[in-house]
Batch of 2 targets.
Target 1
Amino acid sequence: MTEVLAGQSLVLEPDERTRDRVLTAVLEHGPVSAAQLGKLLGLTPAAVRRHLDTLSRHGVIEVKLISNAKSGAGRPARRYVVSRQGQTEIGDDYLEIAKLALTELSANRGDQGVIDFAERRFAAMEASYRPLVDAAGSDVAARSKALAAALNADRFVATSNSLNPHSAMAAEQLCQGHCPIQELATTFPEFCDAETEVFSRLLGVDVRRLSTMASGGHVCTTHVPTGRAVVRKRDTAPADASGTSPIISNHQQERP
């Protein structure tokens, strides 16, 4: 890994490169234990703790004490997370670290590795939003508005506007004015795909991404069909000639 400062190339020492790997792993997997980090990175316990101690002294990471969720007995376990100071100091470096981590993941496991990572990231969003969306009932338009409210509460600056009401072409236009991972999604559109799939599952219908900020749009816009003639459950998608449902990447569906 090379950093460029004032027009000069600065090659990081092995310890610094390893420390960056430890920090990246804490960002990706935290709260995480020292033992888990060792297994993830192929480092000895002593090496992991040395780098964790250095990061802790600089205030970049901190320890969270996690109680035993099953029994509540015993001493709380030590887990490492990036501190608020660390998040502030990392700034744009986090983006570069994340891109590096995802690039290495893709190199080691192919596109499926990035897809799996993106799906795991958005699984937490789906679990968090599911009760809020389900509380809106079975009406798709109401569910879309509930989803927009949930997104808005998480500062996605979201709205859900009704189009062509009371017709077979009725739809909601779900818009997001802020994307915290826009730069990452520009390089790895799998994140947009994973989010769109979550929206489909939460709303119970096939949705279509019309634009994303990652692909140059001013907002992320998702078309949510609500008219009876067009609404269909995802698990009843028509099969192609081979008898299987066609699978199309959501970012391939986008319209300019």
Note: Residues 1-12, 229-256 have pLDDT under 50 and may be disordered.
Target 2
Amino acid sequence: MNDILPIVLSILAAVVVIGALIPVLIKTRRNITRYPDTRDANDPEVRSGGGTAVDDSTGTIERGTPGGAGTDVVDTTTVPDDAAGLETIPVETPLPVAGRLTRLRERLVRSNNIMGKGLLALLSSDRIDESVWDEVEETLLLADLGTEPTMQLVDALRERVKVLGTRTPEHVKAMLREELIKLVDPTMDRSLNVERHGDKPAVMMVVGVNGVGKTTTVGKLARVLVAEDKDVLLGAADTFRAAAAEQLATWGQRVGVPTVKSDIDGADPASVAYEAVKAGIEQEVDVVMIDTAGRLQNKVGLMDELGKVKRVVEKLAEVDEVLLVLDATTGQNGLNQAKVFSEVVNITGIVLTKLDGTAKGGIVVAIQRALGVPVKLVGLGEGADDLAPFDTESFVDALLN
């Protein structure tokens, strides 16, 4: 009897443990659809066992016969909130792009346009001497326009003031508008490359240093694309920052967009990005957006890893856009960041956040000059729809109003 008792107690303990694990396993299976690892084990850049998964908390992802009609169905009516238990997150309808542009322009006009107002006041003076031109130059430099663009603009304004003769405020404003538009360069292509290529989605990487709002920008941009009737899939390749994947998935939930993420802390970012593109191809989405970890531009290893993420993704599909997110208030430091990132990956466009502080609006010109790539998107505020395509004339008009 004494020999049997330990065995019985062991069996009872095992039953209790298994009973406790069953609900957890069921919940995990319901919320995560795992994908078989079909990557090349001999490829040194694609680490096996990344543990990536598609977070289907935006609804359900039903996998059927590959290539068959209706094999991937995404139900996005409500989003279960695991933390809240019974609460649900309703899928929102993002604002149309046209409405965003109007709102952002109004916000720019209401903000403290030191650059535009300062120039208008100086150039409307009864007498413009060298001290006035010195102030014009200082105003432009303080606005982070950069030395070369500042000299170019001052020279152009000097010449036009000589020819203009009598200057009314209306004439000065029109003159400034023309010259600033030239500097910002309306000829740059600011469109996003988000069109499918045959059987493959457009792929977009979002990069930048810590704290500029990359994950938030990816979420807001997903809203822009959904408003344009694009099917989007998000890839949470920021595996270093705690809760980054969950934050991205929440943004996706709000507009009914699935997120590919890892269930392993510190997983290989390149592996997660690879699985995101793979899932995007299988589900025939229009755009795959990959959020990357915030990197300090002076950390060589991290910058090399960013290049690796891009190379691994390109084993499946071409990377159409690499958007660099910059905080407009960082000024020339943001310019230095941009230069380093452009050496690692081919930057195709800039996203400027916190542009509501338009005293630093000249950074638009400085960055475009330094990299030869356009500012494509701007953010003004913390709202979910406070991100819109950059429009040259609207930006200049806002500075001068």
Note: Residues 99-184 form a domain with the Four Helix Bundle (Hemerythrin (Met), subunit A) fold (CATH 1.20.120.140).
